[in-house]
Amino acid sequence: xxxxxxxxxxxxxxxxxxxxxxxxxxxxxxxxPKDQQGSQQGESNSPITxxxxxxxxxxxxxxxxxxxxxxxxxxxxxxxxxxxxHFICLLLLASGLVTIGLSHDYMKxxxxxxxxxxxxxxxxxxxxxxxxxxxxxxxxxxxxxxLSIPLYVMAGIATPRPSSEEAALKYFLxxxxxxxxxxxxxxxxxGATGSTSLQQIVAVVQSGNYNLALILGGAALIITGxxxxxxxxxxxxxxxxxYQGAPSAVTAxxxxxxxxxxxxxxxxxFVLAFPAFSADITPVLWGLAALTMVLGNFAAIAxxxxxxxxxxxxxxxxxxxxxxLVPYGQDGLSADSVASALFYLVAYAFTNFAAWAVVIALEQxxxxxxxxxxxxxxxxxxxxxxxxxxxxxxxxxxxxPTLGFVGKFYLFRxxxxxxHVGLALIGVLTSLVSAxxxxxxxxxxxxxxxxxxxxxxxxxxxxxxxxxxxxVALSIFSAPLLFLASQAVLKLF
Amino acid sequence: MITVSLIIFLIVxxxxxxxxxxxxxxxxxxxxALWLVVALFGVAILFGLxxxxxxxxxxxxxxxxxxxxxxxxxxxxxxxxxxxxxxxxNENWGWALGISALVxxxxxxxxxxxxxxxxxxxxxxxRFDSVAELGKALVxxxxxxxPFELASVLLLAALxxxxxxAWxxxxxxx
Lengths: 493, 174
Prior knowledge:
The complex is a heterodimer.
Chain A: H1 2-11, H2 13-31, H3 48-66, E1 72-74, E2 79-81, H4 83-109, H5 115-133, H6 137-155, H7 162-193, H8 198-207, H9 212-230, H10 239-245, H11 248-273, H12 278-301, H13 306-325, H14 334-362, H15 378-381, H16 383-397, H17 403-417, H18 421-447, H19 458-476, H20 478-487
Antiparallel strand pairs in A: 1-2
Helix pairs in contact in A: 2-3, 2-5, 3-4, 3-5, 4-5, 4-11, 4-14, 4-19, 5-6, 5-11, 6-7, 6-11, 7-9, 7-10, 9-11, 10-11, 10-13, 11-13, 11-14, 12-13, 12-18, 13-14, 13-17, 13-18, 14-16, 14-17, 14-19, 14-20, 16-18, 16-19, 17-19
Chain B: H1 4-25, H2 29-49, H3 53-77, H4 93-112, H5 130-139, H6 145-166
Helix pairs in contact in B: 1-2, 2-3
């Protein structure tokens, strides 16, 4: 009995460390000396708080790294700490660390620096990590809530700025609505099979004693609920406003973290529990992926605000990742499907952080410096930042030698192996369309005259250069990363 | 075959559905909240009819005793003009009604067409202690201990978030 509890706790140790660290940090933050500089609204936080938060994430990451190659299971099969979750957890923790680097100076500069911000970040991160381990639909739901609720608050942390409040409210209302869909879907799957555990569901499906109509309805509602979180069309309505209104550092975390966790849950639930129904589910995923890529890319063309542009770009990239999910049920392809999705998530994370780091560097108080025109002349005035942005834009487009190119290559290969030539064609064509608006940013930076002002903050610059170098270097040496991703197979114990 | 429990079920079901309808159509928010009490009470009786006495009590204590009271507090503490609001319907209500009816019909069809639906469930053994089993399930490590604990972390995060958002920052407290 005690041994059982210990193995269970051992399985989710990285999350326990992170969540406890967050609780303790909340108290410690009260006693730390406050840094009064740069605070405008009576807000202040200690410079030590982000460092402590980063230390917590590093500890958690160290535990995850130490356990690579030792899959464990806990809580009666409810949680699975396997290669898949290790990969996702490390990506998430790295995103959390980058977010701290992006946030620290930015929040202070905008006068919204608060210790609770880092605590909420850590809570959200623990929810995301739990989501990647969940092998039970109840845990998928609860960890989705744990990741979302702090994100709603973080989006609105610039209150009383109206755009930030709008972002938080829109994200909250639609997020709560989406959670309703997810719970309903879980309910239907439970009604159809008599269990929420993925293992049990698989066993019931194999025995044939289930209600097909209910399980398909449940799967559709689960796609809807998680689709809201990863922002696929037609569940993307909140994305542009929430991404634009939220503080830029929060948006960067939101776009990478929530997408990674959402796709982790989609992959685990569908690859493990629903492969038997792929004949019915694959066409739906096909349509959603195609719709998302087309609408996301075409809507992005009209955007003049860089945050909105990146929001639509993030929708479009959700469509690309969704492509990997389409052949999830075909024999021998589910491993490729998972590996290419994971690889693309890494590519997206690096590229996205590089782009957002530049956006944060150029953003001025009062939401200034966010129009495309404000980037004119960046190539001459701040060549390094312009180079980072150019690398990010090329990687988003999928031009070699960037991680985005390698990621798209594996995605298209998976889709073609699955025999979905039409979908791959849509992917290639929409990538061409996306080149138009991504390259426009580069044109504006290098070919137009202007006097952009950028901040020189050491951490921010480190994150910008680090992400951009990662995008290029990892594309040249992509074999180890792909090997890691292909090790992250999903299987039942 | 008409039994006493069937008659009780039908009466309770009608009351529950009727008051649920009143919740969404009432013009006064406080009235809507009070109708919600009736609807939730009906659900509690349904739990009781299903021999889930503990859940019936929990339903009353938590949903009526805590959540509805919280809703009423929230209504009272926010702006006054929320008490009387105009039409409860926007121009899309026809569409919404159509889609809801369609979904309802599909669900009913899905459930009724399943053979398991027509199997009569066996009543529980009188010695079966459902409360004890529920308690064990909530703390057993291979039961629901983790979701139970996670819910408390979730509530803590929500609590911190609510304070961060709602805390009024006074300039003089700099």
